[in-house]
Specification:
The protein is an alpha+beta fold. It has one domain: Alpha-Beta Plaits. Strands 2-1-4-5 form a four-stranded mixed β-sheet, with no helix packed on it. Strands 6-7-3-8 form a four-stranded antiparallel β-sheet, with helices on both faces. Strands 9-10-11 form a three-stranded antiparallel β-sheet. Strand 10 and strand 11 form a beta hairpin. The two termini are about 40 Å apart. The mean pLDDT is about 90. GO terms for molecular function: RNA-directed DNA polymerase activity. InterPro entries: DNA/RNA_pol_sf, Group_II_RT_mat, GrpII_Intron_Splice-Mob/Def, RT_dom.
Length: about 325
């Protein structure tokens, strides 16, 4: 990647780290950014392109280009969400920071945080959710309204600062947070809050903020409740309806203080109804990570039919699968 020595630079960023970042970006593929350059086109001058990234990041002179804004429909309907597509070079630079942050933050993260973490998956979250729905009668199904659109940059910076002593990590996180969005019509939008999904570093940043805003808050204020969180999608398991209301009220206050809010229409308290848990309640189903949990007919090992509170692929997820076939 060139002859410059790390000793000549203010920031000690290894060329090996840049190479590892490139390999991850190549494996993940992804669309071109505002420069319309694909991974394959980037590779036509690979050594020189990687050297430029390393040289600028090590020197403190790397400034991210605008992020390509792409509007995609939300999974469960109700408008669109903004996906930010960085250039290939910028994805590699972001991945350098992600590779530096992930080992430092992974050990502090909660066991019930499942999104974008090594050794954890959406299926792990669904399995755990199913188990707790059998054991506890009530679920707080919550939706953080426009989390990525509403996330204040100061919260991200504060969370990163608490978990790294590397000045260059904080420097580049700040620059990426302020990188403008380029809309499809070519207009460029400056940002002071929004953190578009789609960047290589956004998963670890989102997990960091929600680790303090959500996971640790619940552990401290409600140590007897369980939850599963996958990025900004979460469910909380409660023993009683009263406890579910208490948790919702506490989380509402907590998030309000951080400039975030629970979606008033999409956040609901659900009764896990089955053969043993009967009665009439307003909500007896919820959807989490593409699976709808609700009372369903099932067959016991001895062939006896029963009604259990079980998950199955949601209608929206099935529709999406059929569209992709």
């Amino acid at each position: 990647m060139g002859k410059s020595s790390p000793e000549d630079k203010p920031f000690d960023i290894s060329k090996r780290l840049v190479w590892e970042a490139y390999e991850r970006v190549k494996a993940n593929k992804g669309a071109a950014g505002v420069d319309r350059q694909s991974v394959e086109e980037f590779e036509t001058d690979l050594q020189n392109n990687l050297y430029k990234i390393w040289n600028r990041m090590s020197s403190g002179t790397y400034f991210p280009p605008p992020v390509k804004a792409v509007e995609i429909p939300k999974t469960h309907g109700g408008g669109t969400r903004t996906l930010g597509v960085p250039t290939v070079a910028d994805r590699i630079a972001q991945t350098v920071v992600a590779l530096q942050l992930e080992p430092r933050t992974e050990w502090i993260f909660h066991d019930d945080s499942y999104g974008y973490r090594p050794g954890k998956s959406a299926h792990d979250a669904l399995r755990k959710c199913r188990e707790w729905c059998w054991k506890k009668n009530w679920v707080l199904d919550l939706d953080i309204h426009k989390f990525f659109d509403s996330l204040e940059h100061r919260l991200v910076v504060k969370a990163v600062k608490a978990n790294t002593g590397q000045k260059w990590v904080l420097l580049y996180v700040k620059r990426w947070l302020k990188a403008p969005l380029q809309r499809p019509d070519g207009t460029v939008q400056e940002r002071d809050r929004e953190t578009p999904q789609g960047s290589a570093v956004s998963p670890v940043l989102a997990n960091l903020v929600l680790h303090y805003a959500f996971d640790m808050f619940l552990d401290r204020e409600f140590p007897t409740v369980e939850f599963e969180r996958y990025a900004d999608d979460a469910v909380v398991h409660c023993v009683t309806e009263r406890q579910a209301h208490q948790v919702r009220a506490a989380l509402t206050g907590r998030l309000d203080g951080l400039g975030l809010q629970l979606h008033p229409e999409k956040t609901k308290i659900v009764y896990c109804k089955d053969d043993q848990r009967r009665g009439s309640y307003e909500h007896t189903s919820f959807t989490f990570l593409g699976y709808t949990f609700q009372p369903r007919g099932a067959m016991g090992r001895d062939g006896t039919p029963f009604v259990g509170f079980q998950p199955a692929v949601s209608k929206d997820a099935l529709k999406k699968m059929h569209e992709q076939v």
